Amino acid sequence: MRLDNYLKNKYENYTRSQIQDYIKRGLVSVNNEIITKTGFQVRDNDIVELKDLIEYASRAAYKLEAAYNKLNLNFKNFKILDVGSSTGGFTDFSIKAGAKLVYAYDVGTDQMVERLRSDKRVILNEQTNILHVTPPKVDIVLIDVSFTSSKPILRHLIDASNKFLVLIKPQFEVGFDYLVKGIVKNKKRVATLLEDYMQLARTLRLNVVDIFESGLPGKEGNIEYWLYLTK
């Protein structure tokens, strides 16, 4: 039986999408070996285990969690700017990681989960385009936006912090001509996009600390990329 099917049968409260995310994030082991392929074949005598999970407001938090660990970041007592807060995945992770205050901005409305909306550590600004406001000074800026580019946002926020962690989503930046059923297939176009970001960083006199694939793909399966910048 496929590993994802096995786990779906065992953990009925989780959706198939959640189960597949957990596998890809390395949270599932078979006979004490981490397995990241959803189609891995499980035998009757195999011991399959799912690590204890911290539940977040959205799957975006798990993307941030992986980048946070890879970059050895520390949000303890940080003031954080979350651009594109949506349901609150990044905000939720930041609070759980010890942030003392999160300024959350989103152009939408009534998206953030109630427990975060009522959290005194969260200053929520919905129906607000970050490009139209003077940003607060923070310890790090987190950017995760859809249907637009993060580049003008990065330019606008250059004086808000000394650290910037940007989730680059090629599916919203390369143009419709490079999408095949919503998926970006052209690796050269993606490489050009990433170089554009690094060139922007140089123009803004920012240091490119790291750029790497997000361990968790976008909802449609697109590969996304983390860009970590400092002054």
Fraction of residues in helices? 25-40%
Major sheet size, sense and barrel closure: 7 strands, mixed
Q: Mean of residue pLDDT?
A: 90
Helix/strand order, N-terminal first: HHEEEHEHEHEEHEEEHEE
Q: How many individual β-strands?
A: 12
Reading off the top of the CATH hierarchy, the class of the largest domain is best stated as Alpha Beta
Number of domains as seen in the coordinates: 2
**End-to-end span in angstroms?**
50 Å
Put simply, the count of helices is 7
Structural class: alpha/beta
What is the CATH architecture term of the largest domain?
3-Layer(aba) Sandwich
With strands numbered from the N-terminus, the spatial order across the biggest sheet is 6-5-4-7-8-12-11
- Write out the CATH superfamily name of the largest domain: Vaccinia Virus protein VP39
Quaternary structure type: single chain
> Low-confidence parts lasting 5 or more residues at pLDDT below 50?
none
Beta-strand residue fraction: 15-25%
